[in-house]
Amino acid sequence: MRTKSLTQAFEHAAEIMLEADGRAAGLTGAGISVASGIPAFRGSQGLWDKYDPFEYAEINNFKKQPEKVWEMLGEMLAVVEKAHPNRAHKALAELEGKGLLRTLITQNVDGLHQAAGSLEVIEFHGATRDLCCLSCDWRWPDFKLIAVKNLPPHCQQCGAVLKPDVVFFGEPIPERALLEATAAAEKAKVMLVIGTSANVHPAADMPILTKRSGGKVIEINLELTPLSGSVADLTILGPADQLLPEIIAACERLVGNE
Ligand SMILES: [Zn+2]
Description:
Blueprint: H1 4-20, E1 24-28, H2 47-50, H3 53-56, H4 59-64, H5 66-81, H6 87-97, E2 103-106, H7 112-116, E3 121-123, E4 126-132, E5 139-140, E6 163-166, H8 175-187, E7 190-194, H9 205-212, E8 216-221, E9 234-237, H10 240-257
Parallel strand pairs: 1-2, 1-7, 2-3, 7-8, 8-9
Antiparallel strand pairs: 4-5, 4-6
The structure holds zinc ion.
Zinc ion is lined by residues 133, 135-136, 138, 155, 157-158, 160.
């Protein structure tokens, strides 16, 4: 059942998006990819029932026991390789195509925003598609599990075990991603925060930067977060793959009425 307040929320979101006149950024987290079959770290389902991410996605554990960590990585890459973008990813690509969204900052490593057609994507925590060698910096772009007979994959230059180019616990955010994301957040007149619990820093600081620079924050998530009722000007609770297309439809109605 559609409540009147939900319709009003979509219209309010659309007004804010149109007012920003393209000066909009997005911040996405694991919640947006759950509908694509990729389980979130937090919450108990699938992969993370079996492997504690704080143990298996920790950089010193990878350095000590890369073979063990690759047991998890092999399963994770298999999940990511067969995942497809859902309606939320496609809606964000559509917003960019319409000139209503400039930059997307994602905490996800699954590459689904690009697969959906988004062009300006800052991968805050890297991406699983590329492997890198911690010993000699050799890289394997667009790696697919089918490319190797056995895991783990090894560096073709020095023989060390390769690591997906994602930020493990205990590693810093890549400097370039942090600088670009910070600039995008400060310039944005509105930031759409989608599917993130907003408690992993520094990613969670991005909407705060937008707010401090005089911009607005729209939050779309299944549950309330530390941003709700404080940093967020508008919080809409629900699944992003259902809510984002509604916001686009509301934008279209508003533009049509002008
Ligand atoms: Zn190497």
